[in-house]
Amino acid sequence: MTAMAGAWNMLANCAGARRGERVLLAYEPAEYGYFDASVLNAVGRLAHEMGLIVKTVNVGFDPHVTRLSDALRAQMDKVDIVVFLARLGDQLRFCDMPKDKRIVVCFALDDDLLGSGFGTTSYGAFVALKDCVTGALSSAATVRVTCPNGTDVVGTPEMPHADAGDTTVSRFPMSVFKPVPAQSFSGRVALCGFLTGTGSQYYDDYTLEFDGPVMAYLEQGRLVGFDGCARDVAAANAHYDRISGILGIDRNFVHSWHAGIHPGCGYRREARANYERWGGAAFGNPRILHFHTCGAYAPGEISWNVLDPTIWMDGVPVWENGVFHPSRLAGGQAILDRYPDAAAVFAHPDAHVGLAAWRAMSDGPALLEAAS
What's the N-to-C CA distance of the chain in angstroms? Predict the structure, then answer.
């Protein structure tokens, strides 16, 4: 498959673009080290081939942006579809987007992602899977999250109403289910070697790496402490103190969590080379589950990342050691039967998530054979 096929999937299947419609491609230049220019080139070329009226605008990158500029909003008012090939769309997806436009935020950051199974597999399949998972969570009496490194969190999902608790902006590719509110969940979370931001706001020292294994503890959706070597625990607490103080937000609030649902989401660069970029793409892989913390709003400002989760819904391991099994959900197999290309991706998942496997050990995390 090619990046052009991924671009078609985004414009035709996700945005619902039709010949003669006007599309605005709001892009972030490659010089910022996040989106590759090849993505803009592929989407722009395909849009022209589809007979769309195309306009591009450089929106740059502002780590502290809180609203759309008047100039950009004026350009958005003149089109039918807006595609964000920029972090701006992710930063403002919960708070400042016009409701009368078809708006897509792209999470395929380079032509490898856009042209892989992540970008090219039927968009509708993952919309259906998202709804299937969300429905199962809404009816589950007990959900438990575990992982090989010691995560063990239990609660009863209190899912928001169908038209709440999510963003109206379309993600492409669709790669997560509706976030599960954390207020009823308690337990411990094994962090996979670091704390990093959520892509909501950007700040200095965005990522804190640990020397050894660290557990985060929560009770009824509140952070109650960390466990690990004294230096790591002190660093984690100082990080929360600093970020919550700078932004004036609820330090200990754990807002929600979700896992990736797209086994085609292979992230082949090392996470530590650019944690901001990793956090904006790799989370769609079922091997990654993350909690939104620090701030009483989605997505919070500090994420807890769990590697290879098992998610038990009323005793059924729907995720098992980082593998998502749709067939274990009511209606899940029917979705795979309806979308053979999605079934093929599930049969051959991409295990690359930009991390080497972590193992909690008394003398610190050991890097096992790289899965990335």
Answer: 21
Residue-wise pLDDT tens digits, 91-127: 886 666 778 889 999 999 999 999 999 999 999 999 9
pLDDT, one tens digit per residue, over 239-289 is 999 999 999 999 999 999 999 999 999 999 999 999 999 999 999 999 999
Query: What's the burial of 361, exposed, middle or buried (CB within 10 Å: 0-12/13-18/19+)?
Result: exposed
The amino acid at residue 348 is H
Q: For each of the domains in the chain, give its residue range(s) and CATH number, in order of start.
A: 3-120 (3.40.50.2300), 123-370 (no CATH)
Nearest to 200 by CA among 97, 303, 85: 303
What is d(CA 337, CA 343) in angstroms, rounded to the nearest whole number?
7
| High-pLDDT (> 90) share of the chain, % | 85
Q: What is the pTM of this model?
A: 0.92
Spatial neighbors of 186 by CB under 8 A, at least 6 apart, are: 153, 154, 155, 218, 219, 220
CA dihedral 240, 61, 289, 3 (to 10 degrees): -170
Evaluated on CA atoms 278, 204, 239, 68, the torsion sign reads negative
Each residue of 328-354: b (16+ CB within 10 Å) or e?
ebeebeebbeebeebbebbeebbebbb
| HSE, side-chain direction, 13 A CA sphere, residue 276 | 18
